[in-house]
């Protein structure tokens, strides 16, 4: 017992030190509790405060202005629901535009846009400076109106102009084709030795919408297709396939894997079952293939 007691006994100096430490802790606690922590108020002249507030307000305005959606030139014929909402159009105005376009009709001016949608003058004034129409809208001399009975009549194959010999001026008589588009068609045609194989290749010309392609095909068709040696799909190797438009090495490998697994193709449309095959380009790819 004495041995255990000796371990917890303190000398007089140690007891004095412990008492002093406890006293200091108590004093510090009282100081902390009763000390005034509030900071002194900083007073500024009213004119300085007003200046600071003006700067803050101006920064807020700049930030709000930057957060507003920015408008870029756009074709009003292709306004989506979201685009229409962001422009400030009502549901009814957007629906009227979509119904008009569903009739395959086109808005060709700010005046047309207001007549079709019924938007207010103030909204039209805000958004019309950003309207961007195709070149052919401004080239009225090159636009052929389909108002007469003769223009509505479907041309026969013999009456149509050969797409492989058509000039830029002839192409510009099509509704939707201006100088840039006509030159683009000819440039694409001339990239092949012999020109187009079939009308479907117009789908590969940059910038042509389905509507414009149909307008072209109503007056033009390929009468002198270039000669193509078709590749046998059941014997072709990867190097043969990648020479065909829209087929790269990964797709060629998928085609060969499918052919091996199914012991060959029985029909060209069977390509649609190949993983990753571009279905929208099937008709163009088929121009170069055969099954012997």
Automatic annotation (TrEMBL):
Pfam families given in the database record: HHH_3
TM region(s), chain numbering: 16-35
Superkingdom of this protein's organism: Bacteria
GO molecular function: DNA binding
Keyword Flavoprotein: no
Annotated keywords: DNA-binding, Membrane, Transmembrane, Transmembrane helix
GO CC annotations on file: type II protein secretion system complex
Record's keyword annotation contains Transmembrane helix: yes
GO terms of biological process kind: protein secretion by the type II secretion system
Name listed for the protein in its UniProt record: DNA uptake protein ComE-like DNA-binding protein
Organism expressing this protein natively: Formosa algae
């Amino acid at each position: 017992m004495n041995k255990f007691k000796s371990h917890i006994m303190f000398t007089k100096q140690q007891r004095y030190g412990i008492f002093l430490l406890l006293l200091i802790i108590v004093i510090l606690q009282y100081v902390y509790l009763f000390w005034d922590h509030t900071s002194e108020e900083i007073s500024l002249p009213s004119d300085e405060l007003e200046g600071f507030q003006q700067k803050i307000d101006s920064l807020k305005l700049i930030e709000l202005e930057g957060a507003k959606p920015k408008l870029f030139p756009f074709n009003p014929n292709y306004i989506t629901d979201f685009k229409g909402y962001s422009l400030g159009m009502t549901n009814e105005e957007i629906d009227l535009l979509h119904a008009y376009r569903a009739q395959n009709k086109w808005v060709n001016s700010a005046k047309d846009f207001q007549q079709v949608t019924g938007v207010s003058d103030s909204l039209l004034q805000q958004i019309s400076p950003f309207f961007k129409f195709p070149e052919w809208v401004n080239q009225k001399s090159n636009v052929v109106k389909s108002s007469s009975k003769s223009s509505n009549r479907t041309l026969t194959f013999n009456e149509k102009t050969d797409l492989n010999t058509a000039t830029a001026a002839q192409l510009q008589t099509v509704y939707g084709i201006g100088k840039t588009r006509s030159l683009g068609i000819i440039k694409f045609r001339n990239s092949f030795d012999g020109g187009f194989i079939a009308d479907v290749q117009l789908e590969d010309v940059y910038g042509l919408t389905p509507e414009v392609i149909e307008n072209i095909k109503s007056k033009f068709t390929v009468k002198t297709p270039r000669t193509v040696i078709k590749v046998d799909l059941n014997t072709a190797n990867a190097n043969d396939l990648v020479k065909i438009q829209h087929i790269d090495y990964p797709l060629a490998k998928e085609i060969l894997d499918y052919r091996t697994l199914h012991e060959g193709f029985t029909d060209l449309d069977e390509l649609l079952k190949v993983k990753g095959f571009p279905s929208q380009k099937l008709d163009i790819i088929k121009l170069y293939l055969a099954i012997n």
